[in-house]
TrEMBL record:
GO terms for cellular component: membrane. This is LicD/FKTN/FKRP nucleotidyltransferase domain-containing protein. It comes from Hyaloscypha bicolor E. Residues 21-46 are annotated as: Disordered. InterPro entries: FKTN/MNN4/W02B3.4-1, LicD/FKTN/FKRP_NTP_transf. Residues 99-207, 218-255 form the LicD/FKTN/FKRP nucleotidyltransferase domain. Residues 1-18 form the signal peptide. It is a single-pass membrane protein. It holds the Pfam family LicD. Keywords: Membrane, Signal, Transmembrane, Transmembrane helix. It is found in: Membrane. One of its GO terms (biological process) is glycoprotein metabolic process.
Length: 312
């Protein structure tokens, strides 16, 4: 098993030199462990933590403010464009760093739905979701908690991107049941410029004797071993990624089949010719009525399994 390899590999926490990749591809270098105080306020110097049992804090509970880490929130929400750019590099850096270190992770929830449509983040998404096994989570907590990761990449227009990300592991991860519901997120990968993050949740077989092969997170999502494994190799936002084996079953259970056919969502329209979700009002021509998937011409939209086969 991969996990075994993971435990026997020696990880160096300083001056890890990334293997040279394609020149325009992302690379992850220079890992540094930070003290809690160092991870603290940068942009947001005056934040106050509420006294509660929650480990991760956000500046507010609304859709607008609930998607930033309070330590790095710069005081006002980012623009639509900045959010798109931030989330794009957030997931690319995460997938690149985890792959380089041979740490198993796969994309989940709305992020998996975005992958299904076109291998990208849905432009109305605020945060991203990934999953790991609970044993990977334990390993992360012991070896990579509070590590800062530098990442470099070149944008298509030639500009260089240099970003830093914090990996922070919730100590409550060892408790595998929901509890008071304040700590359902087990870890975060945080963009320290803006505070936007990836929520990482662990899955475990909570009752191996009475319910073998049933994996759950702390937020009542349940999966069968055979629906998760073997994970499938694919691409997301232009970098290598893994998705659960039965991604279609998992997606329809979580979002209904309609989520895989609905072409108008949150002010965005699916444009099959471009294989993109385009903000309404910016789509050329008139809005197309929804055509059931069974009536759509072959090959449109290119998604799901086709998306997978393209990269296999
Ligand atoms: C990452 O890069 C920044 C600026 O380039 C530098 O100040 C920082 O020390 C680097 N961090 C690590 C972990 O190497
Ligand atoms: C990670 O580090 C932070 C800061 O030191 C600490 O509060 C937290 O308990 C640590 N997490 C784990 C899993 O040990």
């Amino acid at each position: 098993m991969r996990l075994h390899r993971l435990f026997t590999t020696t990880f160096l926490l300083t001056s890890v030199v990334a293997a040279p990749g394609p020149s325009s591809g992302p690379s992850a270098e220079n890992v540094k462990r930070v003290a809690n105080s160092e991870a603290g306020p940068r942009q947001n110097k005056n934040y106050q933590l509420p006294v509660d049992t929650k480990y991760f804090h956000e500046p507010g509970g609304t859709n607008e403010l609930g998607h930033y880490d309070i330590r790095y929130y710069a005081g006002s929400p980012v623009s639509y464009e900045e959010r798109g750019d931030t989330l794009h590099h957030l997931i690319r850096s995460y997938l690149t760093v985890f792959r380089e270190r041979n740490i198993e992770t796969w994309i989940a929830h709305g992020t998996l739905l975005g992958w299904w449509w076109n291998g990208k983040i849905m432009p109305w998404d605020w945060d991203l979701d990934t999953q790991v096994s609970a044993s990977t989570l334990t390993w992360l907590g012991e070896n990579l908690n509070m590590t800062m990761h530098n990442y470099t990449s070149i944008n298509p227009d030639g500009t260089e991107v240099n970003r830093e990300y914090l990996l922070d592991i919730n100590p409550n991860h060892i408790e595998r049941v929901r509890g008071d519901g304040m700590n359902v997120i087990d870890a975060r990968w945080i963009d320290v410029r803006t505070g936007l993050f990836i929520d990482i949740t662990g899955l475990s077989e909570v009752n191996p004797s009475t319910q073998p092969g049933i994996w759950t997170c702390k937020n009542f999502h349940r999966y069968r071993t055979r629906d998760l494994y073997p994970l499938r190799e694919t691409e997301f936002e232009g970098v290598k990624a893994l998705v659960p084996y039965s991604f279609d079953k998992i997606l329809t259970q979580e979002y209904s089949t309609r989520a895989l056919t609905k072409t108008l969502h949150e002010g965005h329209q699916w444009v099959p010719e471009q294989k993109e979700w385009v903000k309404q009002g910016t789509v050329q021509g008139t809005i197309q009525p929804h055509v059931p998937r069974s009536l759509q011409p072959e090959g449109e939209p290119e998604s799901g399994l086709k998306n997978l086969f393209r990269v296999l």
